[in-house]
């Protein structure tokens, strides 16, 4: 069972002839649009795909996590914690050999073959040395010897490009050669970059689709030469598509103007948010923002008329969108389809905190796509008007893709229908024949039933 998560890929790319290699393995009869759960951002989407549950159930509500007790917002922390996903359940409960490459929260996974970036950093979050956490421990040493260090600068930031996907697909080959997994789940990232930089209908994104199609074509052609090809099912999935955007929205500036958000000196001449002293704070994440507040009605009053905000969700709104988790904000903002949320709270660039122009994904208490562009005074731009694509809302035009192919694939007539993201995990479980063996509890049934 090979699962390729090609973030940003949509059925229309196959229909437009941009991905002939992928289409050779998953033709139109076995391709569906995939409706993500809200919010359609990386960590919640990945966890839903790998557990068959909603964010209300699995608890991953954003790419960041806000700790109310400590008053801290942390993005992209890499520990598994108590997450139990399909590769862990198949390994622990069904005694299958499993692999997972470059999904979030992999450190500590029980997957037999795992790779995730884990650079060695100093106390200022500056990288001292590139490294990856792997299962088995020596796996990264073997990958580095063969292919060099994982190109982290091509995985995110102004130099992000297809080199990261190429390295990951090489690691997938090595995982198959060395560990022979029964289930291998692989994240292929680079369409994400051009979709955000240039927009989902841009020539640059179409070129990126053709590039990733060539890479996956080469990987699948190599897979055809392996001993277990005759018993292989290939799943192609994508977490979400992108909206064209032209309107950055700044909820933290509004909360500051309303007297609900406090700032302090960052020690280097800029303004740092004072989370402990703030009565409301928006942890922004593409087209969604979680507002953590002691005074929800005041915060709602300040934010509900903000241009670019489509909805302010309270308890009932979160429940209707399967987001009623204690990890979610007291309020959740949803952007207009052409808008997205930026974390800035300062009113002029001279007051920006020291890390605003750095590649510092852990210090920033919100997702910052401006890191995809070089800045005038640092690695990251402070110009949010550069962003042309975003995601997070769940609209039909931005659904992902799910397709099934390969020599051992069953007859599955999807034929451009729409499936729920929660259908993926039970379908793969069914295909593996382990539905009675694992401890995961699914919301929905396999597409084969």
UniProtKB/TrEMBL annotation:
Coiled coil: none annotated. InterPro entries: Alkaline_phosphatase_core_sf, Phosphodiest/P_Trfase. It comes from the Archaea. GO terms for molecular function: hydrolase activity; isomerase activity. Keywords: Isomerase. SUPFAM superfamilies: Alkaline phosphatase-like. This is Isopentenyl-diphosphate delta isomerase. It comes from Halorubrum saccharovorum DSM 1137.
